[in-house]
Amino acid sequence: MYVLRRPPHTAEELPRDDFRGSLLNSGAGDRKRIGLHALRVIGTSTLQLCDLLLNSAPLFHKGVVVSPVRALVEMLLYSKRTLWSMLSIPEFAGPVVDKLPDFPPLSRSVWFRRLGGGIVFNSYRLATWGAQVVWDAPVYVYHYLFPTLDNEVKLPTAESLRTVLHEIESDIAKLEKDGNEKREMAEMDYGPDRAYFALKKNCIEKRVEDAARSKRGLCKQKYEYKFCAFGEVKQDQTKLGKWDGWYGGEDKGLPSSGKVDYTRMRYSQGDKCYNGPKRSVLLHLECGERDEILSVDEPSTCVYEMAVRSPLACNAEVYAKAQEDVAFWTRKQLQ
């Protein structure tokens, strides 16, 4: 798309087009514009001078510019209008007020417009216009200092900057979340030599038959169990518990040997049972070729025990015990 561009300004055109153009061109509209700005400056300066004479500087309160002189006059005019409105109520003096003659404004009188061949009327109109400009000077100052912002107007540049800012804030939040997760991972106990770290991001699922119902002779029912190491244990949509550390004896204390049992995990604060405690799980880790859930039992109400097999549980102690078992059965066979 071809866009027409204005030619560059010459040295002679620049003074006429910038802020000095009104002075250099000296047209009727320019003179009016200069007079308007001058009267506004005079009005603002006059009101400030009155404030100083009254030992009252311009009051900036809650974003409003207030002139004591204008405030006083406005209050008197408001009182006059209020009083006249009250007198116009029929219950007060409405009939009397209605009988008063209605005098037309002076500026609309034919004789006033013809007075002095129209010179008096023109002078009056210019004087009232100048007085109005001086009177409205504080209002212009207020709107200049405290412009009204239209929230519905959205500049493309500002909108793109908001989008970039939102993306930066999202990236910062994501980095903080990743940092907190890595900090928690670094502080968590993953067993000897962090052997069970590989289980953190893996969840083991299996559909297991309810052993408690089978023992009672009830109809068989299977549940989908999901075990997430260092996370949660679920039975279908029911949370059985969340990670609460390694087993260390009763009341979360250490056993008499002073060592934590890294073959048993403790999960607590699960969903509350009906008229019972919150669910909890004691999970037993066993050495095996692959990750799988072996069995699930409920020895008491809402207290579960789960057996999970994993090659990560095959530690040095398990290997030493296996060697002892092999040696024992070898001796048995030789005898």
Task: Kindly summarize this structure in a few lines.
The chain contains eleven helices and ten strands. With 335 residues, the chain is an alpha+beta fold. This is MRH domain-containing protein.
Mean pLDDT: 73
Please report the first level of CATH classification, the CATH class of the largest domain.
Answer: Mainly Beta
Number of helices: 11
Task: Give the N-terminus to C-terminus distance in angstroms.
Answer: 102 Å
Give the total of domains: 3
Largest sheet: 8 strands, mixed
CATH architecture of the largest domain: Distorted Sandwich
Contiguous low-pLDDT stretches (5 residues minimum) are 50-66, 251-257
Give the helices and strands as they follow along the chain.
HHHEEHHHHHHEHEEEEEEEH
Instruction: Work out the number of β strands.
Output: 10
Molecular structure report:
The protein contains eleven helices and ten strands. It is rod-shaped, with a radius of gyration of 45 Å. About 45% of the residues lie in helices and about 20% in strands. The protein has about 325 residues and is α+β, with helices and mostly antiparallel strands. Helix 3 (about 30-55) crosses helix 7 (about 120-135) and helix 3 (about 30-55) crosses helix 8 (about 135-145). The chain has helices at about 15, 20-25, 30-55, 70-85, 95-100, 110-115, 120-135, 135-145, 155-185, 210-215, 315-335, and strands at about 60, 65, 205-210, 220-230, 230-235, 240-245, 260-270, 280-285, 290-300, 305-310. A hairpin with a 2-residue loop joins strand 9 and strand 10. Residues about 50-65 and about 250-255 have low confidence and may be disordered. It has three domains: about 15-145, no CATH class; about 155-185; about 195-335, Distorted Sandwich (Cation-dependent Mannose-6-phosphate Receptor, Chain A), CATH 2.70.130.10. The strands form two sheets. Strands 3-4-5-6-7-8-10-9 form an eight-stranded mixed β-sheet. It has a two-stranded antiparallel sheet with strand order 1-2.
